[in-house]
Amino acid sequence: MSTITYFQFHVALLVPALLVLSAISSVRRRAGSSDVRPSGVVVVSVVALAYTIPWDNYLIEVGVWRYGTGAVAVRIWNAPLEEYLFILIQPILVALWLHYLKRPPKAGSESLSVTRRARIAGAAAGLGIGGVGLGLLARPATLYLGAILAWAGPVLALQWGFGWPYLWRRRRTLAIGVGAPTAYLWAADWLALRYGIWELAPAYTTGWNLAGLPVEEATFFAVTNLFVVQGLLLYAWVLDGRRRPSPTEKG
To answer: Domain ranges in the chain?
Structure first.
């Protein structure tokens, strides 16, 4: 039985983080440029909901994880309302952190040009990860890990195929943008598991842990935060590229 509810989890851990990041981002970024566009946050959040909801509900139906008795208020389909809120809050949380980070002066002036070979290589890398995930689905003990990687593959293929060279040039921002929110959500997830808000089925998990956190959960938050940061960086890159004046306009 859960000792705290999923809603209390939001109030205790996610809402304060949103408020703090909103405050510091507003103060520290007033005078500088940012990689975050409000329209980009909307697009990424809507895509996150649309892409995650069917996958999430399927895994709940299969029994990969379940929620503690009394932990959730109401369910929509198989998932609780609080789960949908989490899916919506996570990209906003990550976007606020990315907005806080300093943007390199030349980041908005980079060409949108990417070679065909580079696009194919990026897409192949993402699909390769998805292929590994599909292979892991064959065994119950690796089903959850496989489901994460198989689900992540198409998104990574799309993002890397579209602009991995730009993401590589922005690797420092990417690493910091993904790293800090991931560490925070790892800690939050560890607490949620400890207090019984949700629990994973041993039959569908490897039993491997990273500092006490199941490797599947660690992978999930790392991958989803990577989706968000890459999506926001690429979105800003495209907008900047389209707004950049041509040589004739400059002259």
So the answer is: 41-61+81-186+203-242
